[in-house]
Design brief:
Length: 250
């Protein structure tokens, strides 16, 4: 019965909006688009990672974050850790409390010593600022919609590791429609192995097409919220509709 349905999206991201005129995309809605700080986090952000990023070469760092709900078993957690090590690239990894089924995440033997010079691990990160940093090369993500919008808005290509719900749908957009990312394959035991992680990182970061696609999509999406853009127009139309309703009720 709603007269308007507003969506945090853009018609450049989801062309299906043309078939459903009752939906009005007005996004992407991000704190960075209004020069404000993001709020409402489950954990305290560790801003030291931004200082660490300042010391890294442009376009060199793999950023890894899985949102608030993804949980790994110990085997998968260790494969991820070793896979990141095998990439031989600097990485920033968000390992929040409760990310494994065990009480405390256990890293492989000697892992912390081996990656000490090129790895940074934090409990939580200021993600929008991280993704906007010139040192970040790609985003290994669970593909939650907010994270997806943040990555797209900053022109960052993805390595997709969905966990549940719409995240698999978002992975399809990234890999099959926007073509600004790659997906992982699981082995017969349902594990994404260290070799698969190393391989997909190499594929993504050695092919300039993914970054080019990511930057082209960023340009289209950010234009939609500017004057003359489709999202800007939809929001303006909604505001004018509210004013008309107020005038009618007076």
């Amino acid at each position: 019965m709603a007269e308007w349905i507003l969506c945090n999206s853009s018609d450049h991201l989801e062309p299906a909006f043309t078939h459903f005129p009752q939906f009005s995309p007005i996004g992407p809605l991000l704190a960075s688009n209004r020069l404000a700080e993001q709020a409402g986090h489950f954990w305290q952000e560790d801003s030291t990672c931004l200082t660490w990023l300042d010391t890294q070469a442009p376009g060199s760092v793999i950023y890894i974050a899985f949102g608030s709900f993804t949980i790994f078993d110990q085997t998968q957690f260790e494969e991820l850790a070793i896979g990141l090590e095998l990439t031989n690239r600097p990485f920033l990894w968000v390992v929040r409390p409760g990310i494994t089924k065990e009480t405390t995440a256990m890293y492989p033997d000697g892992f912390m010593d081996r990656i000490q010079s090129r790895g940074k691990i934090v409990n939580w990160a200021p993600q929008q600022k991280v993704l906007a940093h010139p040192s970040v090369a790609c985003f290994l993500s669970h593909c939650g919609w907010n994270s997806t919008l943040e990555g797209v808005n900053n022109g960052v290509p993805f390595m997709c590791w969905p966990y549940f719900a719409d995240q698999f749908h978002n992975e399809s957009y990234i890999c099959d429609i926007w073509k600004n990312g790659v997906a992982f394959n699981k082995n017969n035991e349902g594990i994404i192995t260290r070799d698969e992680i190393e391989n997909k990182a190499s594929v993504l970061l050695s092919n300039t097409m993914f970054k080019a696609k990511a930057l082209a999509l960023k340009e289209k999406v950010t234009s939609s919220i500017k004057k003359g853009g489709s999202s800007k127009k939809n929001l303006t139309d909604f505001i004018e509709w509210i004013h008309e309703k107020e005038s009618d009720s007076e």
